[in-house]
Amino acid sequence: MNQEFGDEQMEQLEDFLLAHMENDGCMPLDVAHGYLTAVLSGPHMIMPNTWLPVILGNVDFSTEEEASQSMGLLMGLYNSTLAELENGEYEPMILSMEENYDEPLPLPYGWCEGYIMGWNAHGEDTIDTMAQDEEAALNLGPIAAFLMYEEDQLLAPPDEREHRLAADQLADSAVNLFRWWLPRRDNPVGRA
What we know:
Elements: H1 7-19, H2 21-24, H3 29-41, H4 48-56, H5 64-87, E1 95-97, E2 105-107, H6 109-120, H7 125-131, H8 134-146, H9 160-181
Antiparallel strand pairs: 1-2
Helix pairs in contact: 1-5, 3-5, 3-6, 3-9, 8-9
């Protein structure tokens, strides 16, 4: 399915995931985006029947039309994320906080959490493989840094400048790790 995926579709998907987050365990959009980014980047072709349930949780669709529309939106996100990784114009979906800051403070924790979950979908040894390679490990660094924050540091980072610099590196890290795995894949990643 080659669905055009723009701002309107993104809003529809975000609304759907938010509406089903608390009761059905859907991922928020930023977490889902991080998750799909890693699913698309790793050594194995992970099929939609594996990753869709992780994003959707226990959603019980009210109609076939709702199911079809929701799946179509997720496939659109999948395909647009792949295209952005391939052409190097990828941007992670990062929440931000404006209060108390001159420039909005990036809050990339959800995206980073989803990203690491996506790598784990490739197998427990996948992150270890990257950590043992200097180039890959350098690209994992900014992502891992955000997962080490204490709860009281999430909205007040210990070093705001370093926090912003690391957030700015996430897009390049994602593209670089996507490219690092290209020659190491057991199957090419294809459009869904």
